[in-house]
């Protein structure tokens, strides 16, 4: 298997905002050369339009209010992490966003992006691959209604290459490891170039090393493509390492909305990350920890 | 080279015991240990086989029985499959028919033989009806079970990715239900032969069961034993065919992955 360079740390970005070495390479090389399906378009995230907004969204199950009057605007291209205790309604938030569930009250506006179709994709905690379809066919599920036949196959092989699994295209999912299956699920979510990618603890079941590898892969692909990422996670360190912005949900409300203005690539365990992590944990468990 | 020898040895060991039994049986029959009007010697059975093969009787009866078995199977199996799919996919259909079907299922279908003879006499319909009824339930129950046990998370995934109802059915639901459907299929094949033997022994004017009954009247023990052996062989053949089909369609299943 070819070794893929995860998170190349070569050149530091010139200006501290968003333009990494990779993004520049992407802009300057021809599309086919670098990444065949991410043509360097004007970057959506610079225009600062909203990818989606929640206005007074509530969701009740019976008498139980899970989400209570949530207001949230997420600019296109932002990487936002959602943190909260178990059962606080994080998955419910993603299900609302992806249309799997409807709010009890409030309005939800989801933009469609330039492609026109609604390309909101969700990646679940489990890979949810079809056991009876080869890996490449599983990735092609992500192109349902978008591409067929040879075109679909070509695209799925390209994205499999991107996640480092090009040589496994003709295998059954049952022979892959947990981390590899989750990478296939990521490829499936990304193959149609989503406008919004919702991730519901996709790395929760992975071991620590595979987890870090997946985080770097996710960051790299997010930097290449221009989607808006909404990552639900239990792991505060993961949230501050990856996201532009972290929100904490507590008792159905947004208890903290924190920008993470650190440049990328970020180093695990740096003092700023530790400080932000502490701030989030304080919100979650009260001030006594600080 | 070595591996082929090994595989012959491995496959061969399973046949060792049957071969010994046949040998002992032959010896016992020849020495008069087993009386010829209790059990025919293997050589006598082989002789009967040859005799009936030459007269064309054997081929004709096997043909008649197989045709009955298969047409009954196709009728009962497809109705079972249709009801299983419909009740698995639609709650309305399930509410309407499942209770009734479960009630009918508790009647042993062979108990209907007297009634069936009254309805159809000993014509073809009688046999087809019984075989179809016997085959219906294992296919129905297992298809329903298979569809109900399809992973709802996969179905949700299919919906999120915008699969239409037909795509969802053919890409997610049917493949997920297939292992259970195969269990039903193999079970149904067993019931198919069983029903046919009983029906043909009681009410028929041709077929293997009829041949065995005729032979009994004329005390041709060798032909009776031959009929039983041929039934066993046909049953085994049907099962091997189902297994082959299963292996071909369920390649993805860890249980069918070789190496
Ligand atoms: N379909 C439903 N019917 C009733 N209650 C529900 C339903 N879905 C979720 N809930 C309730 O809503 C609350 C929030 O659930 P949700 O799955 O969003 O939590 P979560 O933050 O994702 O938790 P975790 O981190 O453990 O995944 C829970 O108390 C749960 O019991
Ligand atoms: Mg959850």
From TrEMBL, chain A:
Coiled-coil residue windows: none
Catalytic activity, EC: 3.6.3.-
SUPFAM superfamilies with a match to the protein in the record: P-loop containing nucleoside triphosphate hydrolases
Domain named ABC transporter: residues: 52-276
GO MF term (any one): ATP binding
Membership in a protein family: Belongs to the ABC transporter superfamily.
Protein name: Sulfonate transport system ATP-binding protein
Upper lineage: Bacteria, Pseudomonadati, Pseudomonadota, Alphaproteobacteria, Hyphomicrobiales
UniProtKB/TrEMBL annotation, chain B:
Pfam families for this protein: BPD_transp_1
Keyword Transmembrane helix: yes
Compartment(s) of residence: Cell membrane
Membrane listed as a keyword: yes
Residue stretches making up the ABC transmembrane type-1 domain: 58-239
Location, primary (coarse class): membrane
Segments passing through the bilayer: 70-92, 104-122, 128-147, 168-185, 191-211, 218-238
Protein's membrane topology: Multi-pass membrane protein
Keywords: Cell membrane, Membrane, Transmembrane, Transmembrane helix, Transport
Family: Belongs to the binding-protein-dependent transport system permease family.
Name used for this protein in its record: Sulfonate transport system permease protein
């Amino acid at each position: 298997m070819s070794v893929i360079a995860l998170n190349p740390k070569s050149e530091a970005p010139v200006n501290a905002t968003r333009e990494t070495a990779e993004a520049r390479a992407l802009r300057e090389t021809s599309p086919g050369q670098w990444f065949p399906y991410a043509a360097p378009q004007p970057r959506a995230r610079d225009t600062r339009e909203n990818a989606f907004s929640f206005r007074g969204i509530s969701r009740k199950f019976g008498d139980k209010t899970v989400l209570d009057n949530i207001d949230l605007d997420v600019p296109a291209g932002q990487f936002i992490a959602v943190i909260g205790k178990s059962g606080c309604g994080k998955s419910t938030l993603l299900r609302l966003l992806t249309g799997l569930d409807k709010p009890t009250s409030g309005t939800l506006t989801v933009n469609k992006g330039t492609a026109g179709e609604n390309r909101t994709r969700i990646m679940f905690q489990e890979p949810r691959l079809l056991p009876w379809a080869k890996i490449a066919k599983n990735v092609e599920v992500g192109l349902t209604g978008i591409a067929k036949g040879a075109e679909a196959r070509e695209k799925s092989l390209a994205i499999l290459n991107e996640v480092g699994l090009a040589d496994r295209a003709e295998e059954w999912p049952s022979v892959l490891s947990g981390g590899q299956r989750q990478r296939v699920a990521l490829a499936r979510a990304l193959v149609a170039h989503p406008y919004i990618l919702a991730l519901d603890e996709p790395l929760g079941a992975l071991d620590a090393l595979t987890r870090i590898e997946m985080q770097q892969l996710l960051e790299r692909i997010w930097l290449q493509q221009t989607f808006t990422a909404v990552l639900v996670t239990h792991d505060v360190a993961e949230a501050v390492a990856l996201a532009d912005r972290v929100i904490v949900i507590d008792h159905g409300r947004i208890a903290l909305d924190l920008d993470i203005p650190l440049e990328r690539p970020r180093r695990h365990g740096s003092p700023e990350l530790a400080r932000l992590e502490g701030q989030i944990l304080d919100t979650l468990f009260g001030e006594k920890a600080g | 080279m070595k591996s082929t020898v090994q595989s012959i040895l491995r496959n061969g060991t399973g046949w060792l015991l049957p071969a010994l039994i046949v040998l002992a049986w032959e010896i016992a029959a020849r020495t008069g240990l087993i009386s010829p009007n209790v059990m025919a010697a293997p050589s006598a059975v082989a002789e009967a086989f040859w005799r009936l093969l030459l007269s064309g009787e054997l081929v004709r009866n096997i043909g008649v029985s197989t045709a009955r078995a298969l047409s009954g199977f196709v009728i009962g199996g497809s109705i079972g499959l249709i009801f299983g799919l419909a009740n698995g996919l639609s709650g309305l259909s399930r509410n309407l028919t499942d209770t009734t079907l479960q009630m009918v299922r508790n009647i042993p279908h062979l108990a209907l033989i007297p009634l069936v003879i009254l309805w159809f006499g000993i014509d073809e319909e009688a046999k087809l009806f019984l075989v179809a009824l016997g085959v219906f339930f294992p296919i129905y129950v297992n298809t329903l079970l298979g569809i109900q046990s399809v992973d709802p998370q996969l179905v949700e995934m299919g919906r999120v990715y915008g699969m239409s109802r037909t795509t969802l059915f053919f890409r997610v639901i049917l493949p997920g239900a297939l292992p259970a459907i195969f269990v039903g299929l193999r079970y149904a094949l067993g019931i198919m032969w069983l029903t046919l033997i009983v029906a043909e022994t009681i009410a028929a004017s041709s077929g293997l069961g009829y041949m065995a009954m005729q032979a009994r009247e004329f005390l041709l023990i060798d032909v009776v034993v031959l009929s039983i052996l041929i039934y066993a062989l046909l049953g085994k053949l049907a099962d091997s065919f189902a297994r082959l089909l299963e292996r071909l369609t369920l390649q993805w299943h860890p249980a069918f992955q070789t190496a």
